[in-house]
Automatic annotation (TrEMBL):
Belongs to the integrin beta chain family. Residues 727-754 form the Integrin beta subunit cytoplasmic domain. Residues 1-50 form the PSI domain. It is a single-pass type I membrane protein. One of its GO terms (biological process) is integrin-mediated signaling pathway. It is found in: Cell membrane; Cell projection, Invadopodium membrane; Cell projection, Lamellipodium; Cell projection, Ruffle membrane. This is Integrin beta. Keywords: Calcium, Cell adhesion, Cell junction, Cell membrane, Cell projection, Disulfide bond, EGF-like domain, Glycoprotein, Integrin, Magnesium, Membrane, Metal-binding, Myogenesis, Phosphoprotein, Receptor, Repeat, Signal, Transmembrane, Transmembrane helix. Pfam families: EGF_2 (PF07974), EGF_integrin (PF23105), I-EGF_1 (PF18372), Integrin_b_cyt (PF08725), Integrin_B_tail (PF07965), Integrin_beta (PF00362), PSI_integrin (PF17205). It comes from the Eukaryota.
């Protein structure tokens, strides 16, 4: 926003969608240019501009016509006129556009059932199409019967073409002009294009008039079909087109001439795209060249005509390439004698009606448009594919989301109109574009205001817009005075040769400070001597991130001080675990403890490598005062009177953690090996308080009788166990010896017998 260097509110809001203009009269600091009023909204608020003084107009949309799409089925009793059928919604709306801010609206399309159709059959009547003409002669009534399945309102027309009536496309000898065919063939004179039958609902009339047609002839293979297509497209009144579905069936067995080919016949004037039918005959084929493909695309689109190319197999590839260049067109393969033309037309119509493609009229300069489609079966697309939906059946509804964005304001901010329509349909959405190029406060401006140096400008939106030839914040100078040396003297500080401290320009005797690449860095002051980026830094941040840089000096936030606002006044980081600042052993400076007692160190002066703990330090004094014993018993009254002592009955009565004063719980041994318990605390006045349990816990002596009894019992049990083990071993030994004896006795008995 600042880089836009906006001199007025209008210029500011055109710089971007997030730019606002502060109209508060005293908003600018000394030395700041008028363009400093333009900034993003957050920056303006941070600089002290109230929301009610910020001009920030927003775009909007307003629907003017929003008729619902028509729900109607074939065979319904109601017969609506084509203009009463609605297939696209909304129909008309207004978009107010601010530069860079897109406006979005939804478009709904529903292909109506039983929608009227106009079909014009355009046929090549060169000699090679002789057998095809015989089959087309009965096309009218047969096609009527088939189309009744699709619509109850169908009309058909017929036209024919051959070639331009000049050499070298036809023979211009008198005999060949009368009958271009050879032998005894009876052919009609060559012609460029003839409208045989305007659109009619009478199928019999089609058969009758087409039955009277005769083949003609020409010399070259490509035909003049493009001349005929152009006339069919632009001669709406003669052809009889209605504002309904318009189908053009182009039937041929040859290629085509296009723009530039007319030079062969000495024709160099480009096709003018206008209707030149006289007595239903194209009369300017010898005067205008063939139309280009792009020209045909334009005219077919303007007149909402969908083209079906019914061509023989030989030229399929050529016409498929042509189809890719002509939106809403289809190609069908024509049999050698056109016997399949009805089925070809039905198939091509179904293919064309199954796809909807949106197109928009030419956009004003600086306006862009984008589409997002919401098609059947959850298929969504964006960019170019967002313009279309495929595989749509009659009666299906699809939606599109359309974004319109203005990237600049048109000259004089005039309104523009664009139109969006589905290709091949006459219905369209009309969008009136209204551009927000000025602020509301500009309409309230005061021309020749006294606030602008004796009426030399218009006071609007809190600033002066100078008349031609005047400059300065208050229009106080003329352009002739800008380079005056006398003026420069007002832009120098006392005892200085620098104009505006080399940080600005002297305009009308006033310094206008220059801008920095970083828009957050600003020069200010009467002589541009101040800035907001040359203050002391801490941790790489201006004013340590804890203050605001004003005129090269830091203004610190509360609880911070120092040249770089790097000194915190908060004492919380200095708080020791006992609740004292720096443990009472130092001072808190900039959030850090400076320990005054050399024995103590650490972030809160609590670490002492050579010190006893609180309990050990006061153990002897507590022992002598509470129990009249210990090492300091003799000197107790001199060394141990620095604390207040209170006796309690048990450990439960000792002060517990959670009280305001820091507290230490102690357990120590006295000279008799008894445990005594006490607490040590220091209150806010620095007074030490000791609470001691009045009865130490002394360990009782051992009970001799149980010990002796236990020892004796143990010895007896061990002796009994040993005896049992010995007895068991002896039994085992005796049994083994007895068994051995028995065995030897048996052996001796055998010896006696033998």
């Amino acid at each position: 926003c600042i880089k836009a260097n906006a001199k007025s509110c209008g210029e500011c809001i055109q710089a971007g969608p997030n730019c606002g203009w502060c109209k508060k009269t005293d908003f600018l600091q000394e030395g700041e240019p008028t363009s400093a009023r333009c900034d993003d909204l957050a920056a303006l608020k941070s600089k002290g501009c109230p929301m009610e003084d910020i001009e920030n107009p927003r775009g909007s949309k307003h629907v003017l016509e929003d008729r619902e799409v028509t729900n109607r089925k074939i065979g319904a009793a109601e017969k609506l006129k084509p203009e009463a059928i609605t297939q696209i919604q909304p129909q008309k709306l207004v978009l107010k556009l601010r530069v860079g801010e897109p406006q979005t609206f939804s478009l709904k399309f529903k292909r109506a059932e039983d929608y009227p159709i106009d079909l014009y059959y355009l046929m090549d009547l060169s000699y090679s199409m002789k057998d095809d003409l015989e089959n087309v002669k009965s096309l009218g009534t047969a096609l009527m019967l088939e189309m009744e399945k699709i619509t109850s309102d169908f009309r058909i027309g017929f036209g024919s073409f051959v070639e331009k009536t000049v050499m070298p496309y036809i023979s211009t000898t008198p005999a060949k002009l009368r009958n271009p065919c050879t032998g005894d063939q009876n052919c009609t004179s060559p012609f460029s294009y003839k409208n045989v039958l305007s659109l009619t609902s009478e199928g019999n009339k089609f058969n009758e008039l087409v039955g009277k047609q005769h083949i003609s002839g020409n010399l070259d293979s490509p035909e003049g079909g493009f001349d005929a297509i152009m006339q069919v497209a632009v001669c709406g009144d003669q052809i009889g087109w209605r504002n309904v579905t318009r189908l053009l069936v182009f039937s041929t067995d040859a290629g085509f001439h296009f723009a530039g080919d007319g030079k062969l016949g000495g024709i160099v004037l480009p096709n003018d795209g206008k209707c030149h039918l006289e007595n239903n005959m194209y009369t300017m084929s010898h005067y205008y060249d063939y139309p280009s493909i792009a020209h045909l695309v334009q005219k077919l689109s303007e007149n909402n005509i969908q083209t079906i190319f019914a061509v023989t197999e030989e030229f399929q590839a050529v016409y498929k390439e042509l189809k890719n260049l002509i939106p809403k067109s289809a190609v069908g393969t024509l049999s050698s004698n056109s016997s399949n033309v009805i089925q070809l037309i039905i198939d091509a119509y179904n293919s064309l009606s199954s796809e909807v493609i949106l197109e928009n009229s030419k956009l004003p300069k600086g306006v862009t448009i984008s589409y997002k489609s919401f098609c059947k079966n959850g298929v969504n697309d964006t960019q170019e594919d967002g313009r279309k939906c495929s595989n749509i059946s009659i009666g299906d509804e699809v939606k599109f989301e359309i974004n319109v964005t203005a990237n600049e304001c048109p000259k004089k901010g005039r309104n523009e109109t664009i139109k969006i329509k589905p290709l091949g349909f006459t219905e369209e959405v009309e969008i009136n574009l209204q551009f927000i190029c000025e602020c509301q406060c500009q309409s309230e401006g005061e021309p020749n205001s006294p606030a602008c140096h004796e009426g030399n400008g218009t006071f609007e939106c809190g600033a002066c817009r100078c008349n031609e030839g005047r400059i300065g914040r208050l229009c106080e100078c003329s352009t002739d005075e800008v380079n005056s040396e006398d003026m420069d003297a007002y832009c120098r500080r006392e005892n200085s040769t620098e104009i505006c401290s080399n940080n600005g320009e002297c305009i009308c005797g006033q310094c206008v400070c220059k801008k920095r690449e970083n828009t957050n860095e600003v020069y200010s002051g009467k002589y541009c001597e101040c800035d907001n980026f040359n203050c002391d830094r801490s941790n790489g941040l201006i004013c340590g991130g804890n203050g605001i840089c004003k005129c090269r000096m830091c203004e610190c936030f509360p609880n911070f001080t120092g040249s770089a606002c790097d000194c915190s006044l908060d004492t919380f980081p200095c708080m020791a675990s006992n609740g004292q600042i720096c443990n009472g052993r130092g001072t808190c400076e900039c959030g850090t403890c400076n320990c005054t007692d050399p024995k103590f160190q650490g972030p809160t002066c609590e670490m002492c490598q050579t010190c006893l703990g609180v309990c050990a330090e006061h153990k002897d004094c507590v022992q002598c005062r509470a129990f009249d014993k210990g090492e300091k018993k003799e000197t107790c009254s001199q060394e141990c009177m620095h604390f207040n002592m209170t006796r309690v009955e048990s450990r439960d009565k000792l002060p517990q953690p959670g009280q305001p004063d820091p507290l230490s719980h102690c357990k120590e041994k006295d000279v008799d090996d008894c445990w005594f318990y006490f607490t040590y605390s220091v209150n806010s006045n620095g007074e030490a308080n000791v609470h001691v349990v009045e009865t130490p816990e002394c360990p009782s002596g051992p009970d001799i009788i149980p010990i002796v009894a236990g020892v004796v019992a143990g010895i007896v049990l061990i002796g009994l166990a040993l005896l049992l083990i010995w007895k068991l071993l002896m039994i085992i030994h005796d049994r083994r010896e007895f068994a051995k004896f028995e065995k030897e006795k048996m052996n001796a008995k055998w010896d006696t017998v033998s």
